[in-house]
Amino acid sequence: PDPRPIETKKNPEPRTHTTTHHTKNTSTSVVNHHHHRSQQVAVCTAGMVAVFADRTTMRRSLFFSLFFVLRQGQSFVPSTRPWFAIDAPAPASRFRHDQVLRSNGASSSSRTDDMEITDEKLYEIARRLKLEIFDLEEGIFGFDSQDPVYGLEVIQTEIPLSSENPSLGLVLTEMAGNKDGRGLVLVSEVTGNAKNARSSPILVGDVITGVRTSDGSLRERTTGLNYDRTVEAVGDVKEAALKGDGTLHLELNRLVKRATIQVQVVQPGKNVTTIEALAGENLRRLLLRKDIRLYNRKTKRFDMPYATGDCAGEGLCGTCLVAVNEGMDLLNPKDGAEELITRGRPLSWRASCRTVVGSNNEGGTIQVRVQPQSDFEDELNPRVKSVKRKE
């Protein structure tokens, strides 16, 4: 890769390189900067992003460098470099919502013209992205949308490779970068094997946030890395994939417009209220923001059946229950905490603090009834925390 430092200008113009870059042959692997094991972490944020995070503590300067660059809108000259097959061995080098909009399958993105996307469109995508620190001590960070109308869709896809045709066919553009190896790199062209991605197509404007082999023996996180470190990471995993089943697995972040959801709220003694929400919003926060009376003060807590009150959305008390009359398919599946809270209760009941509307970024109508537990005396009794389904 081109070792020259990135130049800075107030009004940068795209700079494109079309030559193939060769890297010296070496039999040793570059030391991974993240020595600790990785685990998949679902992070709840207003921008709906899931990241493949390392459980490691890192220096504060490492986290904040790109974060402030993107937040302050500094300009960088983008360096676009193609990464095709190379004759010599590839460089020995080195995988987030309120909820994730979509983690598998065909993309719901409305950007159908991305293959002809312009440089200005790339700038527009870059301006809407920021690097967010979710947990400094745990080393959890990832991309988020600065524009509330947009969210991040998480895509899992695979690129088939072979020893006869090992080229990925991806062109990457570095939109931001600095000396500590952090940056923002977008896909700017999709050709060759990348066009044949299996689970979901790769689109111009996507961000590669992770890469792994099929058996998971080698996986690398690329969130927030500059061009050189991104290519280094993908190259290492590509070589391992070619020695295995020839499949390279990619995790991508994609900026998409959030779908609109109509949430109809049935309240005791009141007319039905309709609220317009964006896909990915937390149901409890949405209802409270619209002054909907969500809680019945007589409801005993699940975690403390001798007390009333609520846990402020921590998913512990089970007092923010709603009954879903319509649109259950537009909500996220129950997690372990919600399964515990709603065990023995009607299947249509959800804990609103654990519920996300439009979790797959699909529009539609949802109807919920607040305080369904008020119909059952047992629900207001501190000694009983389960009820029979009401016919």
Radius of gyration from CA coordinates: 24 Å
Number of domains: 2
Gross morphology is elongated
Oligomer: single chain
CATH C-level category of the largest domain:
Mainly Beta
Major beta sheet, strand line-up: 14-13-17-15-16
CATH architecture of the largest domain: Roll
The CATH homologous superfamily of the largest domain is named PDZ domain
Going by helix content, strand content and strand pairing, the class is: alpha+beta
Low-confidence stretches: 1-116, 382-391
Mean pLDDT: 71
- Annotation field: number of helices: 5
Q: Alpha-carbon distance between the termini?
A: 67 Å
Query: In what range is the share of β-strand residues?
Result: 25-35%
CATH level-3 fold name of the largest domain: Pdz3 Domain
Helix content: 10-25%
The profile of the biggest β sheet is: 5 strands, mixed
How many distinct beta strands?
Answer: 17
Instruction: Give the SSE string.
Output: EEEHEHEEEEEEEHEEEHEHEE
GO molecular function, one term: 2 iron, 2 sulfur cluster binding
Keywords: 2Fe-2S, Iron, Iron-sulfur, Metal-binding
Protein name: PDZ domain-containing protein
Organism: Amphora coffeiformis
